[in-house]
Amino acid sequence: MQSESCNPGGALDTRQAAQPPEAGGAQDYRTEIVSDLAEIAADTWDALVATDPDATPFLRHAFLHALHASGSACADTGWSPRYLTLWAPAVNGRPERLAGAMPLYAKAHSYGEYVFDWAWADAYARNGLEYYPKWLSAIPFSPVRGARLLAENTGARRLLLQLALALAAESGMSSLHVLFPNDTEADLMEQAGMMMRHGVQFHWTNAGYASFDDFLATLSQKKRKNIRAERRRVAEAGITFRHLRGAEIDDEAWRFFNRCYRQTYREHHSTPYLNLDFFRRIGATMPRHLLLVIAERAGHPIASSLLVYDDTPGISTLYGRYWGALEYHACLHFETAYYQPLEFCIRHGIGTFEGGAQGEHKMARGFLPVPTRSAHWLAHPAFADAVERFLAREREGIDAYLDELNERTPFAQRD
Q1: 261 vs 254: CA distance, rounded Å
Q2: Is 233 exposed, middle or buried (0-12, 13-18, 19+ CB in 10 A)?
Q3: In this predicted model, what pLDDT tens digit does every residue of 172-217 receive, in sequence order?
Q4: How far apart are alpha carbons 368 and 200 in whole angstroms?
Q5: How many CB atoms lie within 10 A of CB 94?
Q6: CA angle 206-210-215, nearest 5°?
Q7: Please, what is the end-to-end C-alpha distance for the chain in angstroms?
Q8: Which helix (H) or strand (E) holds 203?
Q9: What is the pTM of this model?
Q10: Cα separation, 84 vs 149, whole angstroms
Q11: How far apart are CA 127 and CA 308, in angstroms?
């Protein structure tokens, strides 16, 4: 490959030659770093997303652009977009084609990532070195597994990864991190020499349940009894629920949800990442992927949870995102953020419910542990060696933790 120029802080406009296995010969790509997703048409971006079976709604142009345009993930908040893109040349009168893309950010901190490297940054600082800015490929504020190397074929995917690693090495920045890639991409990254970090999430799988009671029947007697007791306490408090989908979520509903969302952060003495403008934007541009659960008491809304879903047959998934309440009621969180979404999955045939980051308590509600991976490259050799040793020890602990969790299944033991 030959590169005419490399300016990591701004635009990268080079000619790269690759020879994807699927192609009959060498393929010339123009590579460019895009700092504003508005420069790429939504249908152009989404056409590339649609080619990847592991793409999630969080990779859609509408979601990513809303993060940036609303000021939630932008340079002012420490997320400087630097999307790495591949463009195939115009052929036979057809225009240039987006052939690959990698969501990439120059990060000024480690907030909103859910794979914690604060200790690494602290070690750099104690040795007089700068850890920030760093390169990060992730969906901001979204610990969701999926594609990070969007590409039309394997050759373009490998080239994207090569370019990202070259960019990281040439930029002088401390590191490159790719969070929650799918298994195929994680394998490619490990083969390319990136260090792998392992984690655990908790997902629920729909086994074709006909009803919530049908699901409960598969759990152990104790778990089944506890869930029924939790749901009964909410019902006895006079709390009812509405499910709003897509265009049913009007501006009044968004304003109420935003109050609930901000209340959650207030209770944790932290600053919310997102804002009302972001919620309004995704409500207008990607309504078919949104579910808002609203809890009401005495005719007034008191709590809500926002979920994102993909109902594509075969890969249908519901993603738990945010929840908040303006009144405290025992077990209201479990009902609003877990049991109501589970009923939605059962009613609409959604295959998987990903409840978000961490949360061992989810197992008592029918969720099972699922391993996750992230990939890391550090420029400093001594720190890379130290982190690699740390990750090896950490993985031993994660493997033991998974073994322990798998022995504590919430489901009834069948002969």
Answers
A1: 10
A2: middle
A3: 999 999 999 999 999 999 999 999 999 999 999 999 999 999 999 9
A4: 10
A5: 9
A6: 55
A7: 60
A8: strand 195-205
A9: 0.92
A10: 9
A11: 42
How far is the C-alpha of 110 from the C-alpha of 133, rounded, in Å? Answer: 10
Q: Which tens digits make up the pLDDT trace of 222-262?
A: 999 999 999 999 999 999 999 999 999 999 999 999 999 99
Question: For the chain, which domains are there?
Answer: 14-199+371-404 (3.40.630.30), 207-350 (3.40.630.30)
Give the confidence band of 414 by pLDDT, cuts at 50, 70, 90: low
Handedness of CA 401, 404, 405, 406 (dihedral sign): positive
d(CA 86, CA 8): 15
Please give the distance of CA 258 from its chain centroid, rounded to a whole number. Answer: 20
Q: How far is residue 196 CA from its own chain's centroid?
A: 17
d(CA 280, CA 250): 9
* Helices within 127-198 (DSSP H only): 154-171, 183-191
Instruction: Compute the distance between CA of residue 200 and CA of residue 359 in angstroms, rounded to an integer.
Output: 9
- Report how far residue 116's alpha carbon sits from residue 104's, in angstroms, rounded to the nearest whole number: 18
Residue from 274, 93, 49, 83 nearest 164 by CA: 83
